[in-house]
# Entry
Amino acid sequence: MSEKTAKWLRLDNSAKIFPMMADKQNQNLFNIFIRLNEDVDKQLLQRALEITIKRFPSMNVMLKRGVFWFYFEEHGGKPLVYDADPIVMKKISSSNCRGFCFRISCYKNVIFADFFHAVTDGTGAAEFIKSLLFTYFTLKGYPVDGEQKVLTVGSPVNPREYEDSFLTNYKKKKIKDLTISSLKGKKSYRISGIRFDNAGKGVINMYAPAKQFVTVCREHNCTVTEMIGALFMLSVYETKIKPQSLPPQDIQLFVPINLRKIFTSVTLRNFSLFSRIGVSASDEMTLESLTKTIHECLKRDTQKEVLSDKISTTVYAEKFLPMRILPLFLKRIIFKISNLFFGKNKKTATFSSVGVVSLPESFRPYIKDMGFGITANNACPVTITAATVYDTMCINFTRTITDTEIEKRFARYLTDFGIDLKVTSNFWEVDDDALQIL
Amino acid sequence: MRCKFCNVEVDCKTHICPLCHEKITPEEGENLSPAFPPKTERSQRKRHTHFTVTNIYLAASTIMFIVALAVNLGLHQPTKWFWMVGAVLIYGFLTMRNTVMSNNSAWIKAFWQIVMISLILWLAQVVFDDVMEDTYWLLDLALPLIIMISVLTLGIISCAVVRKNKALLYDTLFLSLIGFVPMILFAFGLVQKVLVSAICAGFCAAVIACVIIFARKELVEEMERRLHW
# Structure
């Protein structure tokens, strides 16, 4: 990173919105959790973090407020490794994370890494975590090798790693050629339930052998993403909509699409757009019809031309003169008001399929499993993610409501297919007396 | 251990199934650890607590204001000094919210302090009008002095920490611009005696010149990042 860029960075196009939408309770966070085969050495992890952060200039930043936009300023301090908080994906603030936009914490054999979406997306965060694990294992004295899959501490920093790939792939268009309608959502069913009366979230992780899952998908002639999306939609319908005999409404999934492969980008900052997958909920929904619908939606929304149009639209909005000259506090007010009126009930859930996270084979003896999670909030009370590491697929459910009916039905589908499921939870919905942990 | 109802294996230390919450029995020799840190009393505290610092301050302020009001009116005192008590309590509240607990820039905090202190002094003028005969002392003397003290304080702090925090230079520059306000008021005939206002404007102009001459590079960098659009 050149001296000029080392001091401050503009937020990338999609990151600009996240600090503006954050409020006292909600913040766009996601996390990565890694279960090791032995307890985490917190002091070594701290040393590993201090070493690794130097390799990632786009992560070594703090969020600052400018007159027109937020921006990142180089962070002079050291990030800390914390003891994991019982509250999953607790809000990241300058007071609890020393101004960094991420938080590394550990509990027994689990490493938790929470990220504010403004600083990076799942792919960028995974690269950072891989590097952190590599440094940690090296300090531990384990014989690990990066195998060209890890951005090791000594490797040179490619300036393209911290570019705003939205801007580099932006093609100037006239306003009439922009696809603004594609970014709008339709009114859809919002999952209801009794909310937790504290800041906590319920988390259930399901671990399945990847080979078994792929075999089931092949039998149904669909991909893993299509299968999980379809089963989730069916679970929502059967546990939430059907029992309440609600009038016909759409179930809409909000699926982030990683643009790096399509636009050959190596950025570690945000570079993803989304696809909205909507179906009209009814008894006629079948697994086959849903996988077909999801396939068609994803096929349509992952075409390079469509994505290029969406990039142009979002960048145009950022470059739109009245938007640029509006002071930040007015922008925040406008965004919050527009979100209040137009942002609600536009999605049923967020479903992020990260795919296969490529870890070096030399890490395998030390890692039990790994997964991703996205924060849930009142507008989107349930989120679901899927990621595969080595031979294990982790499906994560994060929710702000107490009941686990959707997860239960989802697990029933998988076990009926003959998939061996392992399940963990933070039991946030259960009273301490009933829980009797430890 | 398995949940026979859900047909899943439970992979964390627990006595109940994460999905159906039915009781499950750990198998012999099984040594699982919890997947997440256990809940603590603090983590389960309700989101909306009434005993926040703000609420306690507001309650205490209300009581103090009522007492002041009762004493002032009860003793039939001619000066309505309870308004001053109210103003100082509001000032304390706003200082806590906009200065102490705020992430705003230093110049914005200083600006609000100038505004709030000026308003309190204006209220003092209104309340104690029989004691203070000269009605122009606030704009002629107090306002320029408050601005000069603020600029001087911020200037000294920014000089002391300029190596660590260059952002304060930008804040000092912006705050110094407020130094010309008394002269603008003079132009509109609101200020009678121009001497202190002129000194204030001159002082702030000197501060701006110093910042531009001695820290131009840092200032340009700071302006670039703060004003990027």
Summary: Chain A touches chain B through 58 residues (CB under 8 Å).
